[in-house]
Amino acid sequence: MNAAGVLVSCNEAGNKIPRRCSGIRLSRNWVLTTGSILSSFLQESTDENLTYWKNVSDVTYEDHLIRIKDRPFMETRVTFSVIASNATNTANEITPTSKYLGFQEDTLIPVRNHQNKVMNSLAVAVDQPLSSDTHGKHKEFKSILKYAWRSQFVSHAVDTMLSSWVVGSISYIENESSIEKESEITKNLLSLFLLLKLQTDDDESSEVSEYSELMDILREMFEVEEEVLRRGQSVLVESTPFGNYYFHNSVSEGVVSNVFGPGRCLLLTDASTALGCEGGPISVTVQKDGKLKRRLVGMVVCSLSWWRGEWVGFTMGVALQPIVRRLLFPGAPVTSSPSLVPADTSPDQLAAVDECVVLVRCGVHWGSGVVVGSRDGIVLTCSHVVRHARNDQAQVYWNNRAYTASVLFRSRDGFAYDVAVLRTGPGATFRPVNVSSKVAVKGEPVIAAGFSLFSEDDNVRPTVTRGIVTLASNPMAMLQTTCCVQSGASGGALFRYTGDLVGLISCNIMDTSTGALFPRINMAVPASVLAQPLNDFLRSGDVTFLSGMESKDPEVQRLWKLQSTISKL
């Protein structure tokens, strides 16, 4: 699919400062972008904006294209332009650093501190005219909003699975009416998609021919139903952070962390984005004609969100194939959904993740766990996950089934290593993970898996994210990683790429002065310190061996208790 990223500018009548976001150039004349570009001026409570809001929030055109010409108020209220690169478009042919989860040596370079210079440019980015682009690297096209449609899949997913999320706000204050209003509007716009036509001097097409041209483009891209979106697969996001054309078509790499919603229409990726990246293309790498090429699979719809007061470090996107196919064939049943089998690891690796990572619930609280023994359903989790267990019992959810588990061991609060051991009893067909006794090393690539953000009610599989070990303490008390870790992941697994368990996710970092959480700075219990007592217990069945999971080393306890700014997940 020969699609490229562009910068979309939206001007409200009477407002000199435009709103900008990213977009996808589907062809020479057509651009797809997100309805969230309309959010800023819809937040102003004027009679005109309320009328416009009734037009854009109308659900009667779900999964049907509407002509904006048929909605005169929508046609005259805002104007658009598209800023594209003048460079030759080779976006579909790339030489990626790696198609696989991993890293290359000798790719690190020192980064100098230019923070003040960058922030000064950002302050004027939105209202900076394109004419200041003296190098001629970009060209601005006047554009007309021709069509819009609302995805029923996305609408339903937002209503049912994102009800406790706040989206689009740069800050979060509980019960703040302005933030709640902003989030409500932005959520409604997540399911709205806009199709812009670039105005060129030689364009003499009629409405009939342009509609036919557009539908042909969409069919060519999405008519063939292929399973191209896989959890764990490497993705590339191309977008323009902050709407500043100096950052035009910046790229960010990550993996598909999860897919969810009807038709698997929404996705999470750990690729980093910022405000202004909404509308940018999400691509995967495929091999075609002996070359590695990008294939368009999604679009960024939300770069900034909060869940129960916690900043979400993941980027949210839509999977374009299910929602565009629904547009092309509105009455067709959902015959398949994007595969959950990874392309970037061994064929069985993420399948093994799903078989050993479980959700652990105690009342209203939940976390994750890792199956380490199959005979009696032995599950390793964090001590703080089962702190509220009544009668030393917890519920374990796996593969849409619930099991009652007994708490066999739980380390004392605040003591290394924040570990608990549960037993579900025989009957479950868990596949245990191998607990590695090999010590993790700084720089080692890892994969984290757990039930971040979504509970058993949401019927999703474990969320995966990749990173590296940034610190391994000496003596071995904790591991620090760059994986994107959110609430619900406590007790989840930290895997080597061999599939061995190298750590147990415990917590992330909180700034006590501001209350801000940092999802990409997190701690894990080293599996190497748990392997011996756990193996002794599994071999003998003697619970007393589990006491070895609480360290007697005062130096380890000192290191552990230095985590005064650590927030439990």
From TrEMBL:
Its EC number is 3.4.21.-. It comes from the Eukaryota. GO terms for biological process: protein processing; regulation of fatty acid beta-oxidation. InterPro entries: Peptidase_S1_PA, Peptidase_S1_PA_chymotrypsin, TYSND1/DEG15. Gene3D superfamilies: Trypsin-like serine proteases. Its main location: other. It is found in: Peroxisome. Pfam families: Trypsin_2. Keywords: Hydrolase, Peroxisome, Protease, Serine protease. One of its GO terms (cellular component) is peroxisome. The full-lengh TYSND1 is the active the proteolytic processing of PTS1- and PTS2-proteins and in self-cleavage, and intermolecular self-cleavage of TYSND1 down-regulates its protease activity. One of its GO terms (molecular function) is serine-type endopeptidase activity. Peroxisomal protease that mediates both the removal of the leader peptide from proteins containing a PTS2 target sequence and processes several PTS1-containing proteins. Catalyzes the processing of PTS1-proteins involved in the peroxisomal beta-oxidation of fatty acids. Belongs to the peptidase S1B family. This is Peroxisomal leader peptide-processing protease. It comes from Cryptotermes secundus.
